[in-house]
Amino acid sequence: MIARLLALMIALCCGLPALAADPDDLPGLIEQLQTRDYAAMEQTVNTIAATGDPRAVAPLQALADGDLYYRKSDDKVFIARKADSGTDLLDPLTGEFVENVGRRDARKIGINNGMRRALRGALGSLTLLSPDPKVRAAAAQSLFKSPDPGAIEALGQAIAAEKDEAIRTAMEEAQAASILLSDSDDATKIVAIQSLADRGGRDALSLLKGLPDSATEPVKAAALEGVKSIEAALALWSTAQNIYYGISLGSVLLMAAIGLAITFGVMGVINMAHGEMVMLGAYTTYVVQEIIRNNAPGMFEFSLAIAVPLAFLVSGSIGVLIERTVIRYLYGRALETLLATWGVSLIIQQLVRTIFGPTNKEVGNPDFMSGAVQLGEMTLTYNRIWIIVFALVVLAMLMLVLKRTPLGLQMRAVTQNRRMAGAMGIRTDRVDALTFGLGSGIAGMAGVALSQIDNVSPNLGQSYIIDSFMVVVFGGVCNLWGTLVGAFSLGIANKFLEPYAGAVLGKILVLVAIILFIQKRPRGLFALKGRAVES
Amino acid sequence: MRGLVFRAFDRGGMIFLGILFGAIMLLALSNLVLPAGHTLHAPTYLVSLIGKYLTYALLALSVDLIWGFCGILSLGHGAFFALGGYAMGMYLMRQIGDRGVYGNAELPDFMVFLNYSELPWYWHGFDMFWFAAIMIIFVPGLLAFIFGWFAFRSRVTGVYLSIITQAMTYALMLAFFRNNMGFGGNNGLTDFKDLLGFDLQNDGTRVGLLFASATALGLGFLICKAVTRSKYGKVITAIRDAESRTRFLGYRVDRYKLAVFTLSACMAGVAGALYVPQVGIINPSEFTPANSIEVVVWVAVGGRGTLYGAVIGAILVNYAKTYLTGALPEIWLFALGGLFVFVTLFLPRGIVGAINGSGDGGPSPILAKLRSWRDARAMEGRS
Amino acid sequence: MFGFGRAKALAAVSALAIGLTTGAAQAADTIKVGILHSLSGTMAISETTLKDVMLMLIDDQNKKGGLLGKQLEAVVVDPASNWPLFAEKARELIEVNGTSVVFGCWTSVSRKSVLPVFEELNSMLFYPVQYEGEESSRNVFYTGAAPNQQAIPAVDYLMKTESVKRWVLAGTDYVYPRTTNKILESYLKAKGVPAEDIMINYTPFGHADWQTIVADIKKFGSAGKKTAVVSTINGDANVPFYKELGNQGIKAEDIPVVAFSVGEEELAGIDTGPLVGHLAAWNYFMSIDTPENDAFISKWHAFIGNEDRVTNDPMEAHYIGFKMWVQAVQQAGTTDVDAVRQAMYGQKVPNLTGGVAVMNTNHHLSKPVVIGEIQDDGQIQTVWSTDGVVVGDAWSDFIPESAKLTADWTFPWVCGGCEKPMY
Q1: Cross-chain CB nearest to A459 (options C42, C204, C376)
Q2: Lowest CB count within 10 Å: A10, A238, B171, C208, which one?
Q3: Nearest CB partner across the interface for C87, out of B27, B50, B281
Q4: Which residues in chain B have Cβ-Cβ distances shorter than 8 Å to C204?
Q5: Which tens digit of pLDDT belongs to each residue from C99-147?
Q6: Residue C258 half-sphere exposure toward CB, CA atoms < 13 A
Q7: pLDDT(C9) > 60
Q8: B160 to A428: CB separation less than 8 angstroms, yes or no
Q9: pLDDT confidence of A19, banded at 50, 70, 90?
Q10: Which residue of C has its CA nearest to A379?
Q11: Could you give the CA distance from residue B205 to residue B277 in angstroms, rounded to a whole number?
């Protein structure tokens, strides 16, 4: 199918307009897109693409994006745009506003994956000669992903006309991919294989491995060489990739545990409500995004930046509230704080469930958190990169607060010797409240980060609480460096075990390792030395 | 030895046993003898519910023994309970024989289903009750012994110990969730038919299990009493109050702790074993750390270090749970959560402590508490 | 002292008994319908909606004048995602509250936990969730899909329209994925797919870190053959899974994921932009355009007071189950379980998606199968559907031990899993 379309395309590009369908018929063709028969729709798309008419890009793109609608009253096709009420219908070719209809008066023209591939190819070939370099690059990418022997010549034309080095390479690779599937002679194919092997990556590997059985021996041998070289490169990168996964998991653990390192590590409160503080942060993000969506959709990119301080405040003030009403009566009875905070966590969970409902809430990823960057053969997803950065920044700021501010000084003083600190005029109960608030607030900030990778539901906190305790205990209570090292070593250990032992067994092994480690060093990796130990 | 036994039957012990067996006897009679329509007829529902509470009470007792008397806060006692339960579950599974859906006399249904060609080695012997009965005590005991041997020798104490017991039960939960472990994965063991030839769906069997649970609880209570009132018990209380000093006095603290921890785990295992036939299912969610924390809460609510307080706490909290999940399904967690906070804040010695305090004519603990806060604030010094 | 102890004990027990049995003796001027769905704990996410739908249906029926001249009364309890508690609550509903029928459960383990209770007390449970099959109890009606109503049509679709050659079977490690994957594996092998082209992966509940597994899928998919993922990943773990897929750039055009546990409700928690084109197989989609479905959705929105709430397959299952039960009670003229059970067989209710669902004698429904693709608005758009209805199969033909079993609760079989008729 695509082959025929592209053949037509080539004819176009070669200046044989006689073969093309009548461009005047484009509106009629667009109307034919309204069908449930995907085969017929694909045919129509091919015919439209074959007109080579640049006006066809808009409706095809709309179809691919799910924005092409038909009016129920007369089955006419329009591009739809969401309006405040109902739907705005636009002319598919000119983009002019036609009318506004109710939400149920116009229906989307559904497509399936096959159609999406066909549209990718059609749009790719229609835009190969676009004046916009970004569009040309995307077109080359699309054609690489949907290789077709019919596209070879069209790509050849585009390559000849292309000035941009990078785009030309992309086009050449797309052409090479297509050549592999064509009946070109062996020499051309071997050159193409070479070019793909140089490109590397999983896509090229897939193409080389998927070589048709009809290929001749020399071509097969060349492909095998290519596969070997790509696989060698991939194997080399996979260790780095694993370390990255480990760091990324570690950063999530770190994020979840930093707050606990304060409330549990510094203050000695076995804070079972820590997870709920994280959850409150995530819900703050949700609320912020809802408000932005309804009032200022343009601000969405900044939603997280707004949510971080707010989450700190929300969780922090609830933390202060808990400290003032419950925990302050329990100092010196560490194990009993466990029971009280356990009760508090049940209450908060149910409160959130009552207010927001038990279902997951959608927290969107702003654009800078979506997608991935390719570093060599490693895929680094943006959301994870940002979480790593965020976790480290939060840790650094916390250390600054503890080491360089009067509040931090008082906190350390109160932890080390409460009576003495009190005697020196420090208002210990105020410091306690602020410390607990700080720890809770940081947990809230963690919630903002975790909302980007996990469910936002009332159960969010529960899934992190045990891991957080493990990190803090493993790293050594009272020591933020310990938490840092603990989080990353547990993350990396987990990720290195996972490929061999599987996700579950890997985790079990890590837990057993922690239990054994605590026997060796009963106070964690970075144990506090001196008198405080026997307190 | 006679002294040991005798000490257990003190006044409190006798009252406790009297109440326990009196209540159970009444319940059993009312269930079995009175016709279903009678106003005083206890429905079967009540029988298995009380039976379940009694096994929880035994579990709470085992936690109270180590927490209340030895100061070891285990957040993993649910693991021993569940292991005992699994041992019983394995026996019950084997009793199903060829009455499973696939009619395989040798393999339980889930194994047929997961393509096991033969019974895994660790399932052998569980077709005999005596073996299962030994395992019910031996497996939790062994795990506690090994775990405790490492932990107490390296002097892991306080919060650290609590956290690693939590890690232990969490790891076990993950392990039992794996279908490849051969314990039925998430679904666990279920669809039991009979126990020692008695049909589990029969009212008589239920009452029998109720009696077994009550007997186990009574025995457990007596054992705990005997232990805590012996010289040995004095040492473990000393360990609770001042571990280092006890060590300096020449006591091998780790051995004392290990013994009491292992004993407590065996008791928890028995509780689990009695629990399983009464609820009809054992699955890995019994290992969840939250369950273990809840047990500690029962003990705290009842009053730790009193034994009968733990029993009262377990029954009370579970009854509250039963009642509230039916009566206030939407908001019962508020009530439960609130109860925990309230008890920790206002009844630091639990319900029993509060009652005893006021009964002695002295100041009630709540008042004492308020007073101590006032004093604390005045002194501005907490440690 | 002893006397005191006994008296106290007596008082305690009777207080307990009174507390537990109040409600049992209430006047029987209403028909009680039990709702056994978790409202707290891990499963509350999915199950609370079903409780609300049941309340809506019962309310609706009462507005129409109730049933047999009596009003229906919903009895809601919270089994709190705790499996033994499910059994306890089931017994409470039946014995203490005297419910005529119970609608409830979501996970297989909760169903397994209550099953002995329903069988012992001869009561009736409607179970609304797609499940692994391999069961047919006299006391349970299964209104969700059996594997042959979901998994096999989906795989067929991928084979035909996407010409998929390599398969990743990814699931959460519990009985539903295990069974479905076992059935699929033997089905695929029967279709000539070699073992090296099938990758099976299990993850724990609530698995949140999908980096490695998504990378593995990518790796498996780069062998030059069209690859698809068949996902039986359980509810909670799906959000991070799909987020990772989207971020690592796995497009539906390249490696489509077809899921059996992901419906509109699960998608409501995700930005579905990057997921457009991934598939789901169910018996119902909210997007299906029929008058019945429109009416159901409007009613739901009015009841819950929120236009953004979605509807999903288990909700339709409860809708069908409840309607069938109402019809069966009317037909039998009583709520007596044995009479209603007999009346259930062959009971017909129009599907929300068009066509008519029929209750079969194996206690499973005949329902249409629809396969849809995820859209950027969180809806699932049908791309394929069966021509008629598919009969739910309690015992899979692709598992040797179960292929020989038959479930039929009418004469001469009268059995949920037998090799030969009872009579």
Answers
A1: C42
A2: A238
A3: B281
A4: 174, 177
A5: 999 999 998 889 989 998 999 899 999 999 999 888 899 999 999 999 8
A6: 30
A7: no
A8: no
A9: very low
A10: C248
A11: 10
Dihedral over Cα of C171, C173, C179, C184: its sign: positive
How close does chain C come to A459, measured CA to CA in Å? 6
**CB of A282 closer than 8 Å to CB of A460:** yes
The residue type at C363: H
Mean of the per-residue pLDDT values for chain A? 83
Which C-chain residues 151-180 have CB contacts (< 8 A) with chain A? 161-162, 173
Is residue A378 within 8 angstroms of chain C, CB to CB? no
List pLDDT tens digits, range A134-146. 888 888 887 787 7
pLDDT per residue over C266-317, tens digit each?
Answer: 888 777 888 888 999 999 999 888 899 999 999 999 999 888 889 999 999 9
Residue A378's SS3 state is strand
DSSP secondary structure letter of residue A109 = -
Residue of C76, C106, C172, C212 best to disrupt the A interface, most CBs of A under 10 A: C212
Q: How far is Cα A31 from Cα B89, in angstroms, rounded to an integer?
A: 66
Give the pLDDT band of residue A520 (cuts 50, 70, 90). confident
User: How far is Cα B119 from Cα B111, in angstroms, rounded to an integer?
Assistant: 8
Cβ(B276)–Cβ(B91) under 8 Å? no
Substitution target in A117, A254, A362 with the highest count of C β-carbons within 10 Å is A362
Between A and B, how many CB-CB pairs are < 8 A?
142
B157 within 8 A of B243, measured Cβ to Cβ = yes
Residue A80 vs residues A62, A297, C13: alpha-carbon distances, Å: 8, 19, 69
Q: Assess A355–B contact: CB distance below 8 Å, yes or no.
A: no
Whose structure tokens read 């508020």? Answer: B334
- At B71-112, the pLDDT tens digits run 888 888 999 999 999 999 999 998 888 888 787 878 888 888
Distance from CA of A433 to the nearest CA of C (A): 30
Q: What is the 3-state secondary structure (H, E, C) of chain C?
A: CHHHHHHHHHHHHHHHHHHHHCCCCCCCCEEEEEEECCCCCCCHHHHHHHHHHHHHHHHHHHHCCCECCEEEEEEEECCCCCHHHHHHHHHHHHHHCCCCEEEECCCHHHHHHHHHHHHHHCCCEEECCCCCCCCCCCCEEECCCCHHHCHHHHHHHHHHHCCCCEEEEEEECCHHHHHHHHHHHHHHHHCCCCHHHEEEEEECCCCCCCHHHHHHHHHHCCCCCCEEEEEECCHHHHHHHHHHHHHCCCCCCCCCEEECCCCHHHHCCCCCHHHCCCEEEECCCCCCCCHHHHHHHHHHHHHHCCCCCCCCHHHHHHHHHHHHHHHHHHHHCCCCHHHHHHHHCCCEEECCCCCEEEECCCCEEEECCEEEEECCCCCEEEEEECCCCEECCCCCCCCHHHHCCEEECCCCCCEEEECCCCC
**Cβ-Cβ contacts under 8 Å, A466 against chain B:** 166-167, 170, 289
Name the minimum distance, in Å, from the CA of B214 to any CA of chain C.
Answer: 14
| Nearest of A181, A178, A137 to residue A154 by alpha carbon | A178
A269 in helix, strand or coil?
coil
Searching chain A, which residue's CA lies closest to the CA of residue C275? A113
Q: Which tokens hold the place of A91?
A: 């002319």
Q: Give the integer Cα–Cα distance in Å for C232 and A196.
A: 35
For chain A, how many helices (H) and strands (E)? 20, 7
Enclosing H/E stretch for A37: none
Cα distances (Å, whole numbers) of residue C314 to A50, B128, B254, C50: 46, 43, 55, 7
User: What part of B 278-337 touches A (C-beta under 8 Å)?
Assistant: 289-290, 293, 296-297, 300, 330-331, 333-334, 336-337
The whole model's pTM is what? 0.86
